[in-house]
Amino acid sequence: MTPLRVAMIAFLAASIQAQPLDVPPSAAQLREWMYDKCVSSGKRVGIDYPGALERAIRREPAGLAELFRYTVSGEMDGAAGEAHSAILFGLLQRWGDRRFAHVLRVQRLRIRKAVIDTIPMPPGGRLKFPLTYASAPH
Q: Is the pTM value of this prediction over 0.90?
């Protein structure tokens, strides 16, 4: 991984933590956060990561569900994991707690738990997104 790529991922992680809970990222920001490794590892497990992200941005439940499945089947180490975590949190902000949790609750327990464990919940996040947080045991 190049030093520029490492710096970009570190910046991304810091910006997610600094982002207010009430300000969801734009569709363009979510697309920028998508890391090449998410795309390549998604292909290996039969998930069209860019397509799923586009559908999730358009608030299509199937796209969001596909990204949830990536959480347990993709490569979640390093930059790809950081990028995917940031994208899931950004989608939670965009979809809102009720709609996001509705799609999450119909997933298998293993997927729900992985998604909850992956989302970088900032201070106050559990209170802001109680339905999502309650979708899996902790």
A: no
